[in-house]
Amino acid sequence: MPELPAPAYPDDVRARLEADAREIIARYPDSRSALLPLLHLVQSEEGHVTRTGMQFCADMLDLTTAEVTAVATFYTMYRRGPSGDYQVGVCTNTLCAVMGGDAIFETLQEHLGVGNGETTDDGKVTLEHIECNAACDYAPVVMVNWEFFDNQTPGSAKRLVDDLRAGRPVQPTRGARLCTFKETARILAGFPDERPGAVEESGSAGPASLVGLRLARGEAAPARVVHPRAQEPQNAPSAGEAEEEGE
Hints:
The chain is of the alpha+beta class. The protein folds into two domains: about 1-80 and about 180-195, Orthogonal Bundle (Arc Repressor Mutant, subunit A), CATH 1.10.10.1590; about 85-180, Glutaredoxin (3-Layer(aba) Sandwich), CATH 3.40.30.10. Helices cover about 45% and strands about 10% of the residues. It has ten helices and five strands. It has helices at about 10-25, 35-45, 50-60, 65-70, 95-110, 155-165, 180-190, 200, 205-215, 240-245, and strands at about 85-90, 120, 125-130, 140-145, 145-150. Strands 2-3-1-4-5 form a five-stranded mixed beta sheet. The chain is globular and about 70 Å long. The N and C termini lie far apart (about 85 Å). Mean pLDDT is about 85; it is low at about 235-240 and about 240-245.
C-alpha cells in the first residue's frame, strides 16, 4: 500500500525551521547545495531524519522527496530512526580492530545490552560500529557525537558510557565538551556553538597526527630503524664474511 503523506510540523515548529532554513539557503549560490545542512537542521529537531523532515527539505529547496531521500539514505551521519542522546561509535576497521576495537565493541554490546545500531532503554546511548574514524594514530578510537576518545580499552569505554548514562561531565580527548546529538546536529547545520567557552575548547590535530608535518619541516629528528634484537647473534657472520660466503 502507498504511504500516506508525511505529517506536517506544527505551525510554530515550521515557522522556526523555515527561518533557520532561509538563513542556511542564503549561504549558497545554488539552493540545492544547502540540502546537507538542511538535513542536519531537521535532524536537530527530532533526533533523526523523519519523512516530515525530508518533505520540509524538499519544499524549501524545490526538490522531490525522492531526491532528498536519495541523499539522506546515502550518508550514515543521518539517522533514519529514533536514536539516543549520545551516538557511541566504535571503530572496527583494520588497525583499530587489531589494537582492540573488536573487543571494545563486544564489551559494550554486552555491557549495554544492545546490538549494533540499537539504543539503551533509557534513550541515552546508541551503539554502532564504524568502519573508520580517521584517527588510526590513536587506535583504538571511540567517537561520541563525532568527538574523539583516543587510545581506548574495554574498561575505559565502559566507564565512558556509564558516565554518559549517569549524566556526568565527559571531556573528549581532542575537542570541546560533549553536547547532545540534537545539539551537535544543529552545529553541523552551520549554527554557532553558543555554549560559553566551547569554541575555545575545540581542539586540533594531536601530537601523533602532526609528527609527519614536523618531520617535513625539519622540526623533529628523522626516524631511526632499530633492529628488533639488542645485539646480533654471536654466530651471525659479518658483512665481509657474508660476501665471501656468497662468492
